[in-house]
C-alpha cells in the first residue's frame, strides 16, 4: 500500500506499509518524459538539436494520439529527461530557444509538461498511490500569533498541550512521533515544518518530522487570482516518508476529511499530499489526465483549440447561462424542494457532451436545443470520466440512508461530499480557457440543454396543479396551486423518465421565505430560509448567518429571529425579539470574541488608498509581526468605527470592547433579511422599534 512518494533529482522513494512497518523502495532509473508533436522535418531537426543537451537522456519517435478528436495515433517525439526538476526547463527552452526564428509559432506542440512530479511518477510508472490499510495520523496545531512569535509553548499534539517550555515541547513531539510513527502529519499550518526543525536544532533536540532527517521546501507562498477572486497559497514542504496535510491550505480536507481525500486519490492517482493541497479543479483535471493516459492521449501543455465559427444569431443564443425563475418574494407555506441529481454532470452523460463529440464534424444533426449543434454518438471522453463519479455518489448516499452506524455514516458522507465538489467543478471547467480537456461549445451546449430541462419540468409541474415559487441551477421550490393537484411523486417520475435524469425529493418545508433584493424590486436569486417540516431544523441560504464575514453574535441573533418567526408567523414578535438583542448589544454585554469580523485581503497593504477597516487591521497585524498576503483572511473587532487610524479596530486577542453602533447596523441588516419577505424594510423596523420604545416609556409617565 503506497501512501507517500518522495521525488528528488537523484532518486524516487516510494513508501508503503508492510503490516505495522513502513518500507521504502528506491527507484534510481526513473526518467520523466515529455512529447513534441510536429511534422517530420521539424521533429527530426529538434531531435538532432537535443542530442547534445545534458538534460536529455534519450529521444525516440513514437505513436500517440495528439487530442481527443484525433482519429488515431500519429508520430511524435518522446524526450526522456534526466532529472524531474528539468522537465519544465527543457519545455521552456524548446519554446524560447529552438522554435523561434526557425519554425513558425505553433509548429512544435508540447505535451505532458506541467504535471506535478509525484503525480507524473505514479502515472508513468503505473504506481497506484492508494493505501489499502488504515493510515496512522498525527495532528499538530499552533495558533497563528504563536507561529509569528516562534512560540512553541502553545503547540498542541492531537489536542493535548505538551509542555510549558520550548525544549519540553520539542522533546514531547519527538516522543509522540516515535510512539505513533504516523503516515500522515495533519498540521494547522505547513510553517510548522521549518519552525520545528529550526527550533529543535537550536535547542539540541533530536527531532525529525519525517522518517528520515531533513525537509524540503517544494514551493514558496504565492498570490493568485481566479474568477476575479484573490487567493493565497502558503509555502509547501515535504518530509521523507510521510504525507503532510496543511489544514490552512486544504479545502478538500475541510470538506471530506481523510476518507474523502483517499477516495479522490484512488480516482486521480494524485498522491495524498498533492491531493490535499490541490484545488478541486486540479483534482478533476488529474482524473481526466489519468483517463487520457489509459486511452493513449497526450496531455497538452497549453490549450490551443479555439472557439469554432458561429453565426451572430448562434453567438447570441449561446451566450447565456442556465435558466433561473424569478423568486416569488414572501412567506410561503407547504413548500417542497425538488432537485435534479447532479444536473449538469448528468446532462453531459445523458447527452454525450464532450470536447470531441460536440460539433464533431462527422455528423450534421441538430442535437442541442436552440443552438443546433451536432453531437457524435461515439462514447465521449468526459461522460466516461463523470459517470462512475455520479453513480458512486448516488450509491454512497443510498448507503448513508441504509446504515445505523454513525461512524460509518460520517465516513460515507465525507466521501460523498468530496465527490460533490468534483461534480460541481466539472461543468465550469468545460468553459475554462486553460482547461486541458475543455471546450467552450460544450459549456454552451450544457447550458442550452439545462434551460430546456428546467422549462419542461416547470411546464409539467404546473399542468399537474403545482406552482413553481423559485428555481435555480438544478432545484425547484413548488407548492400546491389547486386542491386536485397530482401527486408530486407521479410528476417527478414523469419528468425523470422524460429527461433521463432523476428529479428527486429534497425536503418538505412547513414554510419558506424568499428574500427580496436590496432595492426590494424583485426576488434575490440565492437568498432564502425556511423551516423543514416535521423536524426541528432550518435551512439558510445566502443570508447573513451563512456569510463567512458575519460575526457569531449577529449570525446567532438572526437564527434566533427566524425561530421567533417560526413561532408566530408575524413581524411584530420578531421585531420585539430584535429589541432585546439590541439592548444586550448596547449594554456592552456581548463578548468581543463573538463580534469578530472576517474578511479576505485583496491586495498588499501598500496598495490600499483609503483608511478602511481592512487597512487598520493589516496595520495591527504588522505591529505584531504577522504577515498577511493578498488572498489570506484577517479577523478583527471594530472598536471605534468613527476613527480612521489603526485604533479603529482590534485584533481578537487584543479586543476588550466594541463599537455598538457599528454592530447595531449589522444586526439591523440581518433583521431586515428576516422581515423583508413579510414586507418590512429597515425603515419600517426602526419605526416600530422607536414607537414601541416610546410607548413603553409613556407608560411610566
Task: Describe what you observe in this structure.
Residues 319-646 form the DNA-directed DNA polymerase family B multifunctional domain. InterPro entries: DNA-dir_DNA_pol_B, DNA-dir_DNA_pol_B_multi_dom, DNA/RNA_pol_sf, DNA_pol_B_thumb, DNA_pol_palm_dom_sf, DNA_pol_type-B, RNaseH-like_sf, RNaseH_sf. One of its GO terms (biological process) is DNA-templated DNA replication. The chain has four domains: 33-124, Alpha-Beta Plaits; 130-295, no CATH class; 322-532, Alpha-Beta Complex (Palm domain of DNA polymerase), CATH 3.90.1600; 549-698, Topoisomerase I, Chain A, domain 4, CATH 1.10.132.60. 40% of the residues lie in helices and 21% in strands. The longest helix has 25 residues, at 406-430. A hairpin with a 4-residue loop joins strand 1 and strand 2 (12-18). Mean pLDDT is 91; it is low at 697-701. Helix 7 (251-268) runs parallel beside helix 9, helix 16 packs antiparallel against helix 17 and helix 17 packs antiparallel against helix 19. It has 701 residues and is α+β, with helices and mostly antiparallel strands. The chain has 20 helices and 26 strands. The chain has a seven-stranded antiparallel β-sheet. A five-stranded mixed β-sheet has the order 10-9-8-11-16.
* Largest sheet data: 7 strands, antiparallel
Number of strands: 26
Q: What's the CATH architecture of the largest domain? A: Alpha-Beta Complex
Residue-averaged pLDDT:
91
Q: Label the structural class.
A: alpha+beta
Helix content: 25-40%
Low-confidence stretches: 697-701
CATH topology of the largest domain: Palm domain of DNA polymerase
Inertia-based shape: globular
Q: How many individual helices?
A: 20
* Rg result: 29 Å
Family: Belongs to the DNA polymerase type-B family.
Domain DNA-directed DNA polymerase family B multifunctional: 319-646
GO molecular function: DNA binding; DNA-directed DNA polymerase activity; nucleotide binding
Catalytic activity: DNA(n) + a 2'-deoxyribonucleoside 5'-triphosphate = DNA(n+1) + diphosphate
